[in-house]
User: What shape does this take?
Amino acid sequence: MFKRAWLLPLVVSFALLIAFPQEINSIELLIQPSFIDSDNDGYNDSDDDFPNHPDAWSDSDGDGYADQPNTNISDDCPNTYGLSRIHMMGCRDIDQDWIPDILDDDIDGDGISNELEVASSNALMKYDIFNASSTPLDSDFDTIPDIVDLDDDNDGWPDLIEEDRGSDTFDEDDTPFTMYGASSGFFFVPGVGFTNQYHIEGFEVSLSWLFSALSSELIIPIGLIPIYAFIRFFRTKNFRLFDAAISEVSLLKDLREIEKEINSAMRDRKLHTHHGIILRNAIERKEDELDDDWFLEYGPTRKKTSTEEE
Assistant: This one.
């Protein structure tokens, strides 16, 4: 008996079909699954990912945006799961800021732009723009990594100047103006006036600048002062010796020898140029003096010998 029990539904259905042919549609519903299409898009609600949207019915990547184009919920990246909403919908958005990664200047949302993360990378350390835990150090939290930040502590003073002056580049309270007291300097900015803040176009007056100048820029000139003094003393001494020799000479030939020595000393930089000019004038005066003495002794009628001419 039970072996033929499966025939009963078929017999009943066949009998109803014969008895009530006009109700054939109702009978079909008895033997077929139900079909409900709420949005009339031709897809059964059970198979429709968007049962209430007539222009959308599938979502391949399961992100809530439709594969079908040109709708208000169309997926701009239908094969990639994503929750972006700004500019592009349904695209990957790692930091969940609604901006798709492809358009996001800070993909991982760590506060450092993709460009600066790449710029901060080197052979020893490469920062990942897709990983928020891979972030370069930013001491002053100005979104500029220290390695490319010109002012690491954001105190207004460039790091290069602070390093040169000796103040802490990572402490905003330690500046070249506070190294020697609460306020040990100022800037004068033409057209603006005085300020205690760093100004690239201002003229600085401070203890920090003074000490820096004395210890670096002026150290070489200061160190050369003793050398300059020695050279000046040596040249002055030579000048006095030559001047005394010219005064004491009594013969023209001796005066000519002194003149040769003076010329040689000037070539060897053993005499200042202005000292050489003074000595030449002294030689000319001495020549005139010796000529006058000769004429007084011998008179104008006697001619000088070749030895005396010399």
Summary: Residues 159-207 form one domain. The beta strands are 185-189, 193-195, 203-206. The radius of gyration is 52 Å.
